[in-house]
TrEMBL record:
UniProtKB keywords: Membrane, Transmembrane, Transmembrane helix
Transmembrane feature ranges: 91-113
Name of the protein: Similar to stage IV sporulation protein
Native organism: Desulfofundulus australicus DSM 11792
InterPro entries reported for this sequence: YqfD (IPR010690)
Length: 429
């Protein structure tokens, strides 16, 4: 179908209107003589309309005389007619040719260079190496050797493990993958604290001291695994509570470590969803048309697409392409591509069971957006909310219980930790 339309546009075709006592005889005789007609319609009793290729117009005159009908051309479409219009508008034709040549010329250069994927290596350093390898803004695209630039980046920048150079239009993208350099393990004093409220399900300590146990309820910010290791005597004193420490020797100094471990807890979430029993709105029908215009100052010239939008209600999406400015020269020429999508009104009626199901899915979706990665749902419950007066909405609340890790690392300064007495160092005699 697309090839057929393209061939007709190149050859040129017209839409004719046939009037007479027997327009059907005119159409049948034309078809019998091998003249191809399409889009045949009958708008009136003695009137017929059809589309025909341009090279078949002359034989129709003889058929019209034999059938005592008359025909006239109502629409001309195709490259020959467009060419005739341009011949009568030479200034416009020259402008269009210059526009296309200028667009081709300007699209032959590299105007933008983008660097992605780099964190430790600066973009300025990467662009400097790429420039030495032959990649610069304003260069001709066919002079760019992407493989040479990639090789130079990997040789001159040791922190890069892989580099890719891609040319798309007038933009060059340099993709970088840096080498993974293992950093030093953080050994500063730190606790494992809770990030949210829950009931402890299991706790596994790798380093530090557990201060909660299974079944305990914790709140956000509460210490789960302490990074303070106390000697046995200090622990006993803290548990029993010493009445006076005036004559007691200085307690042994505590050990501060970087706590590590896994703490899983039961956490509860709530989600809400509502669905109307009768829903009204607009939706896309799937029909759309595209129009391409060339805009010169305030004047628009339609290059492709319909002159009038065939939809009564539609949504418009416009993409404007401009020629890049050069120094202080700004050409007032734009290419406007507009896409029109037809919309229609709809009215959807649901029964209460269907609405409750959809509202429950929306409530669970609201909970799913709150769940962290790795959380495991162990229980879910959906409750419809009752209202005093009847309404058009069905409201559903979701209650979800999950098992997830709630611990996070929080560094601390030993001297600032409350409840821990840090003895002063002994003075030398």
């Amino acid at each position: 179908m697309l090839l057929f339309r393209l061939m007709n546009f190149i050859i040129g075709y017209v839409t004719i209107t046939v009037r007479g006592e027997a327009p059907e005889k005119f159409i049948n005789m034309a078809a019998a003589r091998g003249i191809f007609l399409w889009d045949i319609a009958r708008p009136g009793e003695h009137v017929m309309r059809a589309s025909i290729r341009l090279n078949a117009i002359r034989p129709l005159r003889h058929i019209a005389r034999r059938t005592r009908c008359r025909f006239h051309i109502t629409r001309r479409v195709g490259l020959p007619f467009l060419w005739m219009r341009l011949l009568h508008r030479r200034a416009l034709a020259c402008g269009a040719i210059l526009f296309v040549l200028g667009l081709y010329l300007l699209s032959s250069f590299v105007w933008t260079i983008e660097v992605t994927g780099n964190n430790r290596v600066s973009s300025r350093e990467i662009l400097s190496v790429a420039s030495a390898a032959g990649l610069n803004r304003g260069m001709l695209k066919w002079n760019l050797d992407c493989s040479a630039v990639e090789k130079a980046l990997k040789e001159k920048l040791p922190a890069i493990s892989w580099a890719g150079v891609y040319l798309k239009g007038t933009k060059v993208t340099i993709e970088i993958v840096e080498k993974n350099i293992p950093g030093e393990k953080d050994q500063s004093p730190a606790h494992i604290v809770a990030v949210k409220e829950g009931i402890i399900k299991e706790i596994l300590v790798f380093n530090g001291r557990a201060v909660v146990k299974e079944g305990d309820t914790v709140v956000p910010g509460q210490v789960l695994i302490s990074g303070i290791l106390l000697p046995e005597t200090a622990e006993q004193e803290q548990q029993a509570g010493s009445e006076s420490r005036e004559n007691q020797p200085a307690p042994p100094r505590p050990v501060y470590v970087h706590a590590a471990g896994i703490v899983r807890a039961r956490v509860w979430y709530e989600g809400y969803g509502e669905v109307p029993l009768v829903e009204k709105g607009e939706r896309f029908t799937g029909r759309n048309v595209t129009r391409v215009c060339m805009k010169i100052k305030d004047r628009e010239i339609i290059l492709a697409g319909p002159a009038r939008i065939p939809f009564s209600r539609y949504r418009e999406q416009t993409d404007v392409k401009k020629l890049p400015s050069w120094r202080n020269l700004h050409l007032p020429v734009e290419l406007v591509i507009s896409k029109y999508r037809e919309v229609e009104s709809y009215r959807l009626v649901r029964d209460r069971a269907e609405a409750r199901c959809v509202a429950g899915e929306r409530a669970l979706q609201a909970v799913q957006e709150q769940l962290p990665q790795g959380a495991r749902v162990v229980h879910k419950q959906l409750d419809e909310l009752a209202v005093k007066s009847p309404e058009n909405l069905v409201r559903v609340k979701a209650f979800v219980e999950s098992l997830e890790e709630i611990g996070t690392v929080k560094n601390f300064v030993p001297e600032e930790e409350p409840g821990i007495e840090v003895p002063a160092p002994l003075s030398q005699p």
